[in-house]
Structures are given as structure tokens and as C-alpha cells.
Give the backbone structure.
Amino acid sequence: MSKGMKWFVGIIGAILLLVLGVFVVAALVPGPQDPQVDVATSGAGSSSVLPAYSGLQRAFPETNEPADNPTTAAAVELGHLLFFDPVLSENNDVACATCHHPDQGFSDGLPTAVGTTGTPVSRNALSLWNVAYEQSLFWDGREPSLEDQVNFPLTHPDEMGVTDVDGMVLELQAIPEYAAMFEEAFGGGDAVSAVNINRALAAFERTLISDDSPFDRYAAGDFNALTSQQRRGLAVFRSGATRCFECHTAPTFASDTFRVIGVESDDPGRAGVVDDGQFGAFRVPSLRNIALSAPYMHNGSMATLDEVVTFYEDGGGHATGAENVDVFVNGFDLTDQEHEDLIAFLYALTDESRLPEIPTSVPSGLPVVEHLDNPERAVAVAYNTGGSITAAEPRGPMTIRVEEGETIQSAVDRAQPGDTIEIPYGVYHERVVVDLSDIVLQGIPNESGEYPILDGEGVLSEGVIASGNNFTVGNLQTINYTDNGILVEGATGVHFHDIYAENVGTYGVYPVKSTDVLIERIEVTGVDDAGIYAGQCENVIIRDSVACGNVIGIEIENSYNGEISNNHTYNSSTGIFVVILPQLTSKSRPIH
Amino acid sequence: MKTFLSPTVRRTAVFLLAGLTLLTIMLITSACGGSDVAAAVPTATLDPVVAAGKAVFVSDCGSCHSTAEDTVIVGPSLAGIADRAGARVDGLDDRAYLYTSILRPGDYIVDGFENVMPENFGKKLTGEEIDGVVAYLLTMHN
């Protein structure tokens, strides 16, 4: 072999060796894959679903307390008495509390406020709960200072009607108890003044904080602080359909913005106070303690929350041709159940734990407002029973039977984890939401062996939608839903059995992001996509089922460890479809 | 070459040098051309709203809508949707078109498709989630 030849062979050999080496290295380098989830704590499926209360606990904004008026105990105590003292009115007949009554959610129960003359003013008395967090006061936001705000009602002829503020100050100076209290609160030897009256009242009003409602406890992670119905109502409240939460956002459920919702009235609103204000735009009022402060809207034209929700469902001002209606007011369709759920949630914003006492007397000796009976308090108590589940004596698992004429949902709402809900044979027109763990939802067949029927009548989205762990659903028929027959999302331990689904939208039986799923003896027909669909799940068994007349019979997508056996699919474009969609979270491992 | 090394040693040294050079070249090539490995490296951090929207898209939209060009799973591919959403319907800008298509999918159907999209996303998703999905879709340029 020539020297050149040896060189040639040597170089070729080296190249081959190196190529081989590169392949070996490439083979050993791990391929791209999704981050591993902590199966020990959450299971692959459920790990991707956050608790429903995630992200709801938010910090309150800074208060509007100015540097020159700290909220001292002495100022609050003085403000408390002044607030209830009619001495602040021209005829000594009207106090702040007349129109901002503590038993009426610090409003007055009237469409528009009535002061000293008996002539109603043009707008509804705003609640003072959480006024400390507001940076613009009045419905039109004309005043940024809570201290200076006092001057408006004080001197408005139809409110407190004071024509001579200095005279009123002299009147207060002459009352020794007030003179002493002003001196203690503000000092300086000449403390009784118009400015200090305003300061004391503002300091008191800043103590009217409501932040411990069932909603707040839920947001802090106490799942049971809201009832099932209120949790559903919160979902409606936050939903992209209603968009309530965009303006009435947590934690204040108010915003310092001005919006046209289109309540019929001639009131210019924001346009009356600033050049660039929109006609008919008003401040977004707080919904804290909203159930206690009916009637509603700037002119008090809606007597109940039911009316308010209906107004928004109908599209607000769009329904009456109002101009410049806000982008978030669009109208939406709610089922009766969702409508009721939303109202139930609004009651969950009730918290009067820091309600101040009505003083038995005030230093002027003038009469103080009486306590009023607000029936909405009892209604709120009836709605806000969520905490009682954890407070109640623990009980063993129960079987709850859906009563004659009752909805399945109301039976579900009575359940606690561990319970079985029995559904007698019948036809039910509803969408059942189950967000508790350890629930069995079971139909009871009639004498011919037919299962109870959930019929969405082509309007409702799902027959059953569940998100708790260890959920069993069976012996049911679901027909005529628009989206899915039965949807289970983010659960570990799901058992679907003996279910018939026909014409139920996209999927018949649909576990998604769930772990340990057993689907057996299902029959699905007439859906737009897959009869049985397991998406992004782990450990799925689908067996002994029939799917016919669907686009796809059985589909397992991006799931880990699936087993499909002894099924029959026909009359579909694809019988069994196992797919990994690369853009989705992939848990692709062998499907047997 | 006047050195004290034997020819064998010299030859070995040359081979080793050649081999090392080749290895270096190949590793560089592999690192540049190995798209799989490169794709696993995280790109620039997404805007939080867009990132949240992408997560929602993955769990609620992606099983029917591909983000790859001309790929139809069930509904139309959304590749490049940011470039054409605004021109789809007179009077609706890109944002309005996307919101409408999510909240009321039956209003404007893409030619060649049927209206099989679930109508319940408006209630299923929060307003913030829909904002996120729309923000994510508006990053999808061709």
C-alpha cells in the first residue's frame, strides 16, 4: 500500500468513526419533551388545572386617606357621632345617616335620595361601604377628596341644606362634648371648624370596610366558603359571556372609571362635570354589600338584583338604542339556573362584620335615626351557607335522591364529598355542574330498564360537567346538548359507565386533563366530532362501548397510557383515532 | 520535515489533528442544524397575557385548531390569523372578529367549514382567559 493510499484510508476511517460517534452522541442526547409533572401530588392529568379560586385573592388598593388626616381613633369617634347627628343640617332634621343608613347598606332604600326639603334629588344615594378605596366620588366622579365631598350634601338645598356653615360651626362649638372631642381629635385650641368636621366624617367613613365576605374567604382558599350555586355564579360573573368582572373587579368590585351602560335617563353623568366626559357615563359602583342597598343604578330605577341582571342580559342600553354603550355591555343568554346562580353570587359579597353601632344619642341631643328592618339581610344569610359545610358535624356518606319536581342540580347542591346522588327515571332539562370530589351520580332505571334522560333541547351546552376527583357517573342518557354529553375536566379517578349519548354536540363522553379514567359500556351516536374522547389524560381505559354515526368513534389525544378494548365503532370516518397534536401539551407514551 | 519524531508518531499526530478538526466541524454543524435540539431551547419570554392565552389555547382550542399552516384538525388552521382576522368581515377589526368568533362561532363561518364549534366558550372561559387567547392569536403572523 502506497503512503498516499494509507493516508487516504486513514482519513476515511477517521471520518466514519467520527460520524458514528456523532450518531451515538445524538442518540444519547434526550429529545425535546414536556416538563415532567409531579404525579405524586397531582397526577399528570389534573396537574394542569388550577384550583378554581386561584388568582382571586388580590390586594386592596391604597386608601384615599390624605397625609393631613390620619384615621385616628379620636377622629373616627367624633366622625361617628357627627355622621348620625342632624345638627349638620339647616333644619336639624337630616343627618348623613338619613340617606346613608347603616341598615340599608349605607344607602336609603329609595330610588333617589330625599333630604331636608322632601324634594327628591336626582340620583341614588351611593353606598359608603369601602368608600376608602375610591379615588373619585359621586356617580359622576366630580370630587376626588372624601373630606371635600362633605361640602356638597351639606350645602345642597335639597339635602342637608346648610346656608350658613360658619353659623353651624358656632352651633357645634357651643356643645361642650363636641368642643372637647374636636380638641382631642385635632387640637390647636380652635379645633371646631368646617375643615375638621369634614376630616372627622371622612375618617369615620374610611372605617366602613367590607372585606370578609364569603367571596373573600373563598378567594383565600376556603373552597366551601361559597355554596356550589355561588361558585357557579362566580363562574358566570367572571365569564367572557357576561364580563361583569371586567369593571366590577376584585377586590373592590368597583372601578374609578366612567361607563355608559345605557340606563334610560336624561342625566348627563360624567359629561356634566368634565369636558371630555361621555353623556350618560357613570362611575362603576362597588358591588360590596350590594344586596343590602337596593334599589340600583344612578337613578334607582331598578328595584332588585334580578332586574339588574336581566337588564344586562338584554344588552343594557343596546336594547333601547342608547349611544356609546360600553364595550363590555353586550347582552348574553343565561339559563334560568345561571341567572339565579349569578344573583346567589352577588349575595356572597355581603359582609357587615365592621358595621358601626347607631349611637343611642348624639351630643346635640337631636333624635338619631332608628334601626331599620332590612329583609335582604335574612336573604343573604340564607344564601351564604357555604361555611356551614365545614362547620357542621361531620357525617358519613349519604345517598341523596332527586325529589319529584326537583332539579338534579339542587340535589347535587345538597351533597357533600362522599355522597351518592340518585336520579330517578324521568326527563330532566338541565346542565348539571359537579365541582365536589368523591361524588357518585347515578341514574335509576325504570321498570323497562331505561335510564333517566338529560335533554338539553338543543340549547344547553353539557348534560353534566364535573371537575372533582373520584367522580362516578352512570346509568344515564344525555340527548340534544350543543357542546358535550358529559365533560369531566382536571379530575383524578373518573368512572363513566352505562351512558347513552345522542346528538350532544362535539363529544359524547369527554374526560380532559384527567388521570385514571375508566370508560365502559357507553353508546354514543350523532356527534360532530368524537363519540368518546379522552384528551390530555393519563391512564385511560375505554372498553365494551359502541360508537356509531359520529365523525370519529373513539379518540385518544395526547394521552399517556391508554387502553382501548372490545369496542365497536361503525358509520364513522375514523373508528379509533389515537393522535398526538404537537401544539398541545403532550403526554405521549404507548397506547395499547 | 526535520524533527526528532518517528514517521509513525507523526502520522498518528496528523490523524488525531484531522479527526479533532472534523469532530469540531461536525459538532458545530450538528448544533446549528439540529433543529430538534434548538427548538427545545426556550425563546424570548412571552408577554404574560399572551402566555396565559397560549395555555388556554392549548387546553381549549388546540384540539381542533392547528397553528401549523394548512393543517386542518377539525376547524381551520389559525396560522397567520393575525394577518387576516381584520380583513375577514367588513366592520370588524381583527380583535372584534376574534372575540366574535369565540363568543358566537356561528356568526361568520370560514368557507369550506361547517359550524360545529362549541358555542359555550363565552361561559366556560373567563373574560381574562378570552382576552389572553385573543392576544395570543394576534401574535400569530405568517
